[in-house]
Amino acid sequence: MTHEILLAGFGGQGILFSGKFLAYDGLLEDKEVSWLPSYGPEMRGGTCNCSIILSDTKIGSPIVSNPNVLVAMNLPSLDKFEASAVPGAKIFVDSSLIDRKVERDDVEVYYIPATKLASDENLPGLANMIMIGHVIAKAGVMPYENVETTMKKLVPAKKQNLIELNIKAVELGYNY
Amino acid sequence: MAEKVLMKGNEALAEAAIMAGCRHYFGYPITPQTEIAAYMAKRMPVIGGTFLQAESEIAAINMIYGAAAAGKRAMTSSSSPGIALKSEGISYLAGSDLPALIINVQRGGPGLGGIQPSQSDYFQSTKSAGHGDFKLIVLAPASVQEMVDLTFKGFDLADKYRMPAMLLSDGTMGQMMEPVSLEMGEVKEYDKSSWAACGTKCERKHNVVNSLFIQPEELERYNFERYERYAQIEANEVMYDEYKMEDAEICIVAYGVAARVSQNAIDKAREAGIKVGMIRPITLWPFPKAVLNAAADKVKAFISVELSMGQMIEDVELAIRCKKPVLLCNRVGGMIPTTEDVLNSINKANSVGGDK
Amino acid sequence: MIVFEKPKALADVPLHYCPGCTHGIIHRLVAEVIDELGIEGKTVGVAPVGCSVFAYNYFNCDMIEAAHGRAPAVATGVKRSLPDNIVFTYQGDGDLAAIGTAETVHSAARGENITIIFVNNAIYGMTGGQMAPTTLPGQITQTSPYGRNPEQVGLPVKVCELLSNVDGATYLERVAVNNVKNVKNAKKAIKKAFQNQLEGKGFSLVEVLSTCPTNWGLKPDKALEWLEENMIPYYPLGVYKDKTAEKEGE
After folding, report:
1. A66-88: per-residue pLDDT in tens?
2. How many CB pairs under 8 A join B and C?
3. Hey, which of B139, C180, C194, C211 has its CA 20 to 30 A from C223?
4. B16 vs B146: CA distance, rounded Å
5. What is the ipTM score, two decimals?
6. What is the pLDDT of residue B353?
């Protein structure tokens, strides 16, 4: 079983962090894992994306050019990557920031107003983890019961508050 | 088995250098390798080592020259344009028979080029990393684990043969995270007392670290001696990996990220019944000539997959004595060949190389 | 009774310098200082590219030959690796003030605890007498055959004055070796520059005005006069910076 996941949005939306969360879970589950960020000027506020591969077998290219899970957190990302997803892929759209629908009919699409939910639920900057929660629910990229352990592995214990908020965000997306 | 951690290639490499006993790092910021400098800046003061951000790449390589001359394990890292600036110092390291590890996390060129991954410094590192007759041991990692293992190996080979070694990586290997084990075994110590400039203690004749030999006979002798050492390295230190070569009729040659993409393409091509495999050089110098030459008697064609306008392909053609056609599958400028790009080349090789 | 002998730190080999060149005096002063401070066994010298390129054969301490201009960077690498050793560079004007300007300024800015002996003879000697960054206005060289024209090539670089504005530098003094009194002063300055390092006080540079009879086209005695009459007025002798004195005076 191989998940080829592409997360895309603006710099500052926590795209790389949410990708790391999935990668850490893969590590804990002793899977083959790769995490590859776009790098360069993107760090300074442009578009940003991250390839994550979770697999039971040795990973070839770490570059996800044809994702089976695509998370789009802004319109330019959906415009850029919609066509690249494999047929049957699951596409997750932050509908509070993207006002168009996915045009393809050979993919499964999940719309979730993650950014709005984050602001309504007082989870500032955690739309990314709400999206991830929804991805866990609908695409099964990792077991839900691992969320807490993985989060604790990823976020240092001294940032306890962040651990709780992140878990809450994942929960919210999972149950949406 | 040691516990695995998830680390970025650049950071894993830096930690591996420290574990290999490197306590002296001199560098200058340039994308996409700056994480190495940042990591060293954080770690070195804590473990009593030296991190110094030099005023230029040129100064940095010469600081390495000083530290290496003093008998210490020293390392610098940079990316393509920065390596060009270091080439003077690299030649001096080679000419003075000094061990050191130089990291090139390659980006696109020429000129200022771009910051995305590239393999366009193959010629620079394997043929001409500076003026004069000399070689670098060139190691090409294709995973974060190899960033670690080959850093460790690079220091050892440099000390063993008293020469600079280079880790030729690219932006992908530097930036990506993969699970990695940092267990590397014992660091082998080498006796440097016969040549290191570390103070005579008035107990011996002074050591001179030097690459200047005004008498041509003398300079020629040093060059001949150095190339005898290089011949030993070619005989003993070649490293490569084979993937599905047992029954292969087409052989891909690729290193670094190009090999990773090629692996996907090979799996797909085999689903379609095309027998293709890969020989992945891990040492670019010494180049795995013998295994390629042997493969040339079995396969009908080769494909050199690289992120350059066709640099390694020349070594492939030489290694196989042009016995079989060699196709080039390449993207440049920071672009990476896709699985489809490689598949297209495999299909082409499958039809043109039909004379076997 | 021995009335005169070679310093121990100076190797017993013939020097290659031209007759009348004052490099020999400066070598001797450095070696005497190394002897007097008893540091030969822990000193590492860095030789430049230029006339003093073979300095690595002339000192009995461990020596490293650097690329052109890079001696301060090489010395930095050595000193950071061997903080308890004494590290000096011996560089000419082309090496230190042209191609190696960045290394000079930044090793000073970092306050590297090293000693630099800077030999200024206002010309490139090894390559046969071309214009140096320190060649005087109007001075004729192979590459300024009509005399250095400041309108075309600018004015000389005054290294001590330049570095005196670099906060990281500890001690800067300009001396000359054209007469007995000046040679004695030069030795005092060189000794202080090594002592500073022994005491961990930081970056010390001694600029030594030196002659080049061959490329100046003068007999050795006339070269000494030329130095006195032309170089010293342009490059005044003296201490340009001494943080150790400031500290003592506080």
Report:
1. 999 999 999 999 999 999 999 99
2. 136
3. C194
4. 10
5. 0.92
6. 52
What ranges do the domains of chain B cover?
Answer: 5-236, 241-352
Query: B176 vs A34: CB contact, 8 Å cut-off?
Result: yes
CATH no. of B5-236: 3.40.50.970
Contact C216, C226 (CB under 8 A): yes
The chain-wide mean pLDDT, for chain C, equals 96
Q: In the predicted model, is pLDDT for residue B162 greater than 80?
A: yes
Supply the mean pLDDT for chain B. Answer: 96
Chains adjacent to C (≥3 CB pairs closer than 8 angstroms): B
Q: Do B257 and A34 touch (CB under 8 A)?
A: no
Residues in B touching C70 (Cβ below 8 Å): 58-59, 62, 65, 89
Q: What was the pLDDT predicted at B1?
A: 52
Q: Please, which chains are in contact with A (at least 3 CB pairs closer than 8 A)? A: B
C and B interact (at least 3 Cβ pairs within 8 A): yes
Identify the architecture of domain C23-249 in CATH. 3-Layer(aba) Sandwich (3.40)
Phi/psi for B204 (5° steps) reads: -150, 170
Yes or no: say if A131 and A103 are a contact pair by the CB < 8 Å rule: no
Say if residue C202's pLDDT is above 90. yes
Tell me: domain B241-352, CATH 1.50.40.10, correct?
Answer: no
Q: For C27-49, how does the pLDDT look when each residue is reduced to its tens digit (9 = 90+)?
A: 999 999 999 999 999 999 999 99
Cα–Cα nearest to B266, from B245, B285, B283, B281: B245
> For residues B101 and B167, what is the distance between their CA atoms, to the nearest angstrom?
7
- What domain range is A163 assigned to? 2-174
With CB atoms and an 8 Å threshold, state whether B207 touches C63.
Answer: yes
> In CATH, what number is assigned to the domain containing residue A56?
3.40.920.10
Average pLDDT, stretch C160-166? Answer: 98
Using one digit for the tens of pLDDT, what is the confidence trace for C66-107?
999 999 999 999 999 999 999 999 999 999 999 999 999 999
Q: Does B219 touch chain C (CB under 8 A)?
A: no
User: Does A touch C (3+ CB pairs < 8 Å)?
Assistant: no
Q: Which residues in chain B are closer than 8 Å to A59, comparing Cβ atoms?
A: 178, 260
Q: What is the DSSP letter of C98?
A: I
- C61 vs chain B: nearest CA distance in angstroms? 5
Choice between B185 and B138, residue whose per-residue pLDDT is larger: B138
C162 class by beta-carbon count within 10 Å (0-12 exposed, 13-18 middle, 19+ buried): middle
Selection from A129, A66, A70, A140 nearest residue A98 by Cα: A70
Q: What's the number of domains chain A is made of?
A: 1
